[in-house]
Amino acid sequence: MVRLEFVEIALPPADGGKVLIEPAADSKSADLTIVGRLASILASMQAFQEYSTGLRERHTNDYARRVRAGDFKDNKEKLDFLARFRAVLAEAEADWKALQVSLVAGAGFEPAAFRL
Predict the structure, then answer these.
(1) Tens-digit pLDDT profile for the chain (116 aa)?
(2) Which of 5, 37, 47, 88 is least surrounded by CB atoms within 10 angstroms?
(3) How many CA within 13 A on the CB side of residue 45?
(4) Is residue 23 part of a domain?
(5) SS3 for 22?
(6) CA dist., res. 87 & res. 95, Å (int)
(7) Could you give the strand order of the β-sheet that contains 18-23, starting from the edge strand earlier in sequence?
(8) DSSP assignment of 40-92, as one string?
(9) What pLDDT does residue 104 have?
(10) What local confidence, expressed as pLDDT, does residue 66 receive?
(11) Full domain range(s) for residue 93
(12) Interatomic CA distance for residues 86 and 88, integer angstroms
């Protein structure tokens, strides 16, 4: 087991970011702090996960409300409603996947031992 007091990894100068790894208060785990473009990339991923979770929850509640209200005449209408939701979610996922963000390690970032 390796015990580290503190680790800081500097990201490319253009990014101005860094990754800090420190022992947590419980001394059994670590706290990870990410700053810069990498933090933005991770935040956008988290935001989409929260958005799609909320979208699914709203859809589920709307579907249940409509079933209780007797809004669907038959199973075909139920299936059509579910298909429309799947299309909305697929479109949102496609839009998110089209988002391109890059993070490039600059010269000198890679360890010399790897001879990259």
Answers:
(1) 445 555 555 555 556 677 778 888 887 888 888 887 778 778 888 888 898 899 999 999 999 999 999 999 999 999 999 999 999 989 988 888 777 666 555 555 555 555 54
(2) 5
(3) 8
(4) no
(5) strand
(6) 12
(7) 7-10, 18-23, 30-35
(8) HHHHHHHHHHHHHHHHHHHHHHHHHHHHHHT--SSHHHHHHHHHHHHHHHHHH
(9) 58
(10) 95
(11) 38-98
(12) 6
Would residue 88 count as lying in a domain?
yes
* Residue-level pLDDT at 35: 80
| Residue 94 Cα distances to 15, 28, 56, 57, 97, angstroms | 27, 39, 16, 20, 5
What CA–CA distances, in Å, run from 70 to 61, 86, 92?
Answer: 14, 22, 29
**How many domains are contained in the chain?**
1
Ramachandran sector of residue 3 (left: φ over 0; alpha: ψ -120 to 50; beta: rest): beta
